[in-house]
Amino acid sequence: MSETVNIKYGDTSLDLPVITGTENEKAIDISKLRASTNGLVTIDVGYKNTGSTTSAITFLDGEKGILRYRGYPIEQLAKDADFLEVAYLLINGELPSQNDFDTFKSDISLHTLVHEDLKHFFTAYPLNAHPMGMLCSLICSLSAYYPDSLDPNRSDAEKNLTVVRLLAKMPTLISWIQKKSTGHPIVYPDNKLGYVANFLRMFFGQRTDEYFTDDVLVDAMDTLLILHGDHEQNCSTSTVRIVGSAHAPLYASIAAGISALWGPRHGGANQAVIEMLQAIHNDGGNIDKFIDRAKDKSDPFRLMGFGHRVYKNFDPRAKIIKVKADEVLDKLGIDDPLLEIAKKLEEIALKDEYFVKRNLYPNVDFYSGIIYKAMGFPTDMFTVLFALGRLPGWIAQHREMMEAGQPIGRPRQIYTGSNERDYVAINKR
Ligand code: SDX
């Protein structure tokens, strides 16, 4: 017997179906609401109570701090899997067999080069251009080199090729952005290396010397990319889905996701956390002063890396990253005062009634910047690294939306502007 919710509105009494997910989550399906009530719609600014879709990709439970990709706990994937393996899982729904995984990796290695003409973009960017702005335009511009990818009715083979091209070329483009900022020549991919090692070599390596990848850095980067892989209907993923629902090219949908992720309330927080920790350090480490500012409603200062729309308990990713941060700094022999400030900030905030009452805990961005900084990444590159990790999740969510044949995303609104009025000639105003 399927569940329903009854709503009474004027003379109307309407039973709306309740859908139940595989983890027993419940939602009222209001798709018939407007037609059945002569125009009644719902409104939920920021979608805090509203689901946009069903999905079989990621499950998270904000109260219990649970995160699973296709049913696999994030803790197991972070410990035992490899990022490309997780990318395959997110996009295809199952962990790959060894043969499928080898084919997937080989396909990607055939597409790591980027059209040489894309280099001309870099002569136009100013030196201090933000890497997220460059990445967004470069990814969207890939569509210019692959016109077949513009056809919404293109073959499955073409769709798969676009997915492979995105996964293969984003690391290369990110390394080009880095070389633009340092004025060094680009380092071409070495397809004998694994995905992460290849990326680190292109990013940090120089043409003048052999680059020896450090297993500690490869492992830390691989884990961070896995932890950022997907996160159900977050702001940037919802952006990818809604742009994709218009049947825009996948390159454009991913570029839109990059744009949304750039915001400091979202993926841009990892850069903002380090800037905040550095400001606290420069200010003499007076943590209480910044905690008080974060609580002061008249002060726009927020504790960056704290709080989450869904996690009202700990963010499981933050727990893993915190341990990894200790590990990486220890192995690299780095004693970063910002890590100590971060730990003290977390300790004080988690005892403070303001944060406890609002369920504000460290999120994925709170500690990730500490590791990126220890690895030598420039601060303005941190959100680009988040985008690299989230790419397979965006691709998976876009594919799920397209394969479900979902309609174009077009929310309703409630108008609160002027009622009808007549135009007044300018000389009579
Ligand atoms: C990501 O959605 C995802 O899944 C995102 C993500 C992913 O993987 O895709 O997990 C990645 O974006 C993580 C979040 C990174 N952003 C930050 O760390 C920026 C700082 N955090 C905040 O801006 C905020 O917590 C948000 C944006 C993350 C969540 O905002 P919500 O859900 O809209 O919550 P809210 O702003 O309504 O806050 C509720 C209360 C408010 O106080 P009151 O009005 O109740 O008095 O908590 C306060 C807020 O003022 N609050 C904070 C705070 N975050 C919320 N106060 C101080 N510092 C903070 N960081």
What this model shows, in words?
This protein folds into 3 domains: 48 residues, Rubrerythrin, domain 2 (Single Sheet); 183 residues, Citrate Synthase, domain 1 (Orthogonal Bundle); 107 residues, Cytochrome P450-Terp, domain 2 (Cytochrome p450-Terp, domain 2), CATH 1.10.230.10. Helix content is 51%, strand content 7%. It contains 18 helices and 6 strands. It has a 3-stranded antiparallel β-sheet with strand order 1-2-3, with no helix packed on it. A 3-stranded antiparallel β-sheet has the order 4-5-6. Strand 2 and strand 3 form a beta hairpin. Helix 3 packs parallel to helix 18, helix 7 runs antiparallel to helix 18 and helix 9 runs antiparallel to helix 17. The model has no long low-confidence stretch (mean pLDDT 96). The structure holds s-citryldethia Coenzyme A.
Give a quick rundown of the structure.
It contains 18 helices and six strands.
